[in-house]
Amino acid sequence: MGIRTANKWWTFALLAALAAGVAAWADDGNRIDDKALLNATKDANDWLSNGRDYTEQRYSPLAQINRSNVNRLGLAWYYDTGSDRGTVETTPIVSNGVMYATLPWSVVVALDARSGQEKWRWDPQIPRMNFPVGSVGNPNKVRIGPSVCCGPANRGVALYDGKVYVGTLDSRLVALDQETGKVVWEAQTSDKNADYSITGAPRIARGKVIIGNAGGEYGVRGFVTAYDAETGKQIWRWYTVPGDPSKPFENKAMEAAAKTWSGEWWKLGGGGNVWDAIAYDPELKMVYIGVGQGGPWVQGFRDPMRKDNLYLCSIVALKADTGEYVWHFQTTPADEWDYDATTGFVLADLKINGKVRRVIMQAPKNGYFYVLDRKTGKFISGAPFVKVTWSTGLDPKTGRPHEAPGMRYEKEPIEASPGPAGGHNWQAMSYNPNTGFVYIPSLDSTFKYIATKEFKPELGVYNWGIVFQRPPSPPGGAAEDLPTPPANEAFLQARDPVTQREVWRVAGMNGGGTVTTAGDLVFGATNAGEFVALSADKGEKLWSAKLLPGLANPATYMIEGKQYVSVLSGRGGKARIYTFALDANTPMPARPSMAPPAGPPPGAAAPTTQNQQQ
Known about the structure:
Blueprint: E1 8-14, H1 34-38, E2 59-60, E3 73-80, E4 93-95, E5 98-103, E6 107-112, E7 118-122, E8 158-160, E9 163-167, E10 172-177, E11 183-188, E12 203-205, E13 208-211, E14 223-228, E15 234-239, H2 252-258, E16 270-271, E17 278-281, E18 286-290, E19 294-295, H3 299-302, E20 314-319, E21 325-330, E22 345-352, E23 355-362, E24 368-373, E25 379-384, E26 391-394, E27 401-403, E28 414-416, E29 430-432, E30 437-445, E31 447-449, E32 488-496, E33 501-507, E34 515-517, E35 521-525, E36 530-535, E37 541-546, E38 555-559, E39 562-569
C-alpha cells in the first residue's frame, strides 16, 4: 500500500516590511518564451528553470537577504504536500508569482508563491508500489508498477509557452496547461513494458523539450530525446551506447562507439542512461548531457575484452536542432564502479592563465572535479574533490584517469573510493561569480565490490552483476534490495575551479542541494535535516532552521519587494503529516513530534493526493 510521509514545503522570508516591487499573482500568466529564458540571468525576481537560467549556476543576483540580516529569517508559509512515500529532489520553479514543483511519484503542484495556496495539482496515478521483480520487498516476484532503481523521486519541471513539462516514472513526457494543470499532450518516451523510468527534470532548447531517462540499473540502452514543445512530436533521439552491430547504426557516433565495445552488450542494452544532467548553451546552440554507468556494473559481463565502452560515464555535446554529435569527454573509461557522469553541470566564463574560457564544470560520482572547454570538450583541468582510491590521477593533457592496480573485482572482492553513491550525486552544486567558488555537496565513502559468480539478466530485476550486503528488514515491512551504506563523511565544500583548490568545508552537509546569492550567502542542508545559510566567502554559519531530514534543492525569488527562499523537505517512511499555523512572526516550530491540529493552515487549501486536473 502507499505510505504517506511528512514532506513539507518550507519557505522563509525576511521579517521586514518592504516596498512593493514586481507584480505577484496573475491568473492569465505571462508565458515563458525563448526571449524570457535567454534573459533569465538578468531576471532577479523569478526562478524560471531548473538551474535558474541556462548557465545552471543556481546563483541569484538577489541580495535583500544577505549576511548582515539573514539571522532574521523566519517562517513565511508552508505547504503540506500530502505526498506518498518517496524521496524529494525537486527544484521549485517560480514565474509571475506562481511556484511549480514535483513530488514523489511524478505529482506536480502549482502554488501561490506568496502564501502557499494551492492553485492546482496533477497526479499521473502511477501505482504506488515500485518493487522490482527480484527485490526482497516483492516476495511473489510480481511486476508491480514501473521499474525504479532508487525511489520514486522527481527533480522538477520546465516551463515554456504556457505549459508545464514533467517526466513521469512510467516514462511519459507530459505537457500540462500552466494555468489549469490539465493535460495538453503526452508522449510515451519508451516502451512502457521496458525497464525505463524518468526522474530528471526536462530542459528547454530552441522550442524543444529535452528529456533523458533512468534504467541503467536494469541494463537498458540509454538515450536522450527532443520533442516539439507545442505538439509533443519527436524531433530527434540520440542513443548513448551503440546497438546491435549487425544492423545499421543510427549515426556515425554510434559506429565509432561500437569499436570500443566487444561481446554481445546490446542484448541487455548496455546502460548509459541520462537520468539527471542536461544543460543548454544558447550561443553555441549545444545541448550537454551527462551519461550514466554501464549495465551490468561488472564490465566482464557486458564486455569480455574490457574496452572503453563509449559513451558510458561521459559528458556529451550535441547540436540542439538536430541531436548531431559534436564532442565527448569520458570521465571513467571501462567503468566498473557505478561512476555516472550524470551530476549537474555548471556553465561559466572563467579567466584561466590570463584568458577567458567558456567552460562546463562537473563533479561526477568518480570523485574528480572537471573543467572543460564547452565549445570543444577539451580538458582544461581536473582534480580529486573527495577521497579517490580507484585512480592514481589524471593525465594532465587529456584528463584520462590512471586506473590504480587491483581495482577490478571479477575474481576477488575489492574496496574502492568513492562508493556507488559517488563523491557527489543529485544534490545540486552552485557557482557564485562574485566569490568565484563552486559549492559541492560532497561525500567521502568506501564500498566493497563483489561480483556475482553467475550473471543471468532478467526483466524487472537489478542487473548489476554484483553482490550486496542486504540490510535487515525494518519492523512491519520489507527493506528495499539496496546496498548497506558504508561508513562515510559528508560535507559541503567551496572549491575554486580555476586553481582546483578546496577553499573551505563544513562537515555533515550533503543532505540536499545548494543555492548561492549576491547577498554573499550559500544555502545548503545537513544530513540531519537542518537548512543552513553560510557565508559564501568563508563558510561561516549564519542561520539555520531544523526541518525534516531529506532536503531537496532550494531556490530563491522576489515578490512585491520581498525575497523568499524555498526548499522541500521530508522523505519516505511511516511518518505522519504535521501541520502548523502560518505565522511569520513566530520562531520556527519544533520538529514535528505531536498529533497535528485539525484543518489546513490559514489561507491554504487542504492537501489531497487525488488528480485535480479535471
